[in-house]
Amino acid sequence: MALLKDPPSGVEIDMNKISSNLSEWIVDVTGAAGTNYEGETFQLQFKFGPRYPFDSPQVLFIGSNIPVHPHVYSNGHICLSILTDDWSPALSVQSVCLSIVSMLSSCKEKKRPPDNAFYVKTCSKNPKKTRWWYHGKF
Amino acid sequence: MGNCLKQPNADDISLLRGAENNQTDGTDSSLLGPPPPYQVSGPMYHPTPNISRPVAQLTEEEQVKIAKRIGLINQLPTGVFDGTRKAKECVICMGEFMVGDTVRYLPCMHTYHRECIDDWLMRAFTCPSCMEPVDAALLSTYNSL
Description:
The structure holds two protein chains of two kinds. By secondary structure, chain A is of the alpha+beta class. Chain A has a single domain, classed as Ubiquitin Conjugating Enzyme (Roll). Chain A has helices spanning 2-5, 15-19, 93-105, 116-122, and strands spanning 11-13, 24-30, 41-47, 58-62. Chain B folds into two domains: 1-75, no CATH class; 77-145, Herpes Virus-1 (2-Layer Sandwich). Chain B is built from four helices and seven strands; from the N terminus they run αββαβββββαα. In chain B, the strands form three sheets. Chain B has a three-stranded antiparallel beta sheet. A two-stranded antiparallel ribbon of chain B has the order 1-2. A two-stranded antiparallel sheet of chain B has the order 4-5. The A-B interface holds A 53-54, 84-85, 87-92 and B 49-50, 91-94, 116, 119-120, 123, 126, 128-129, 131. Chain A: InterPro entries: Ub_conjugating_enzyme (IPR050113), UBC (IPR000608), UBQ-conjugating_enzyme/RWD (IPR016135).
C-alpha cells in the first residue's frame, strides 16, 4: 500500500469510505500549485469490476466540486484515453490519479467540453459505456 | 464452417496450458470427445480489448485471430523465478515474485507471472509496462537471429 504510506502530493485516499466496500474507493485530489486548479480539492470515485486489473476501473469525479475542464463533463465523466482504450493492467490507482492531476494541470482555460449539455443529458451513468473519441495527446 | 476453437471448461487461458497435449490436427478426433453441450456462460474471448464474447459468438475471422494469438503467446519464453533477476514485483497483480513462481518474459524484457500476462495478452498484444506491441517485438527478435 505505497499509496497510503507515501502518497504523491495532492493525492489522498479516504480510508473510512473504503473500509466498507473494497471495490469502491474515494480519492481526494488537489489541484497542483501554479495551475488553474491550485488550492481546489476534488473527489474521484474508483469502481473496480471483477475483471480488474484486466479491465479498467470506472473513474469519475463526484461531489460538489467537479473541475471545470475541457475534458471533464459536469456530471463528473472524464474523457481520458487511459480509462478505456489505452488502459494497461500495469496502471495503478496512483498513476491514474497522477494522470488526472496532470490533465488538469495542462489546462490553459477553464471551460466545459463543447458538447457538455448534450452529453450529460444523453450519456449512460457508467462512463465506460461511452464511445470516447480522443483528440490529441496529454 | 464451425468453431475452430475448442470450448475449454475453465477459462480462456486454459487453452494455453494444455497446448502441448491438446493439439488437434484434424486427424485424431478421439482426443476431442463428444461436442460440449451448449453453454450460455462459458469462457469469454476478447476479439478487441473492450469486447467479451463466448466462443459461439465469434466470427470466423475473430476465431482465427484468437487462435493465432494463442500460438504466438506460446512462443514467448517462460521460466521459473529463482530470485536472481532484477524484477521484484509483477506489476499486474502487484504481488512480489516468489521463488518457484512461473513467469513469462516478453521480448522487451519485462517479466510477469505467466497467468497474469497471458490473461492480458489474450485481450491486447502489448506489454503493460512499455506498451510495446508484442508481435512486432517478436518479429524483430526473429529477424536479428
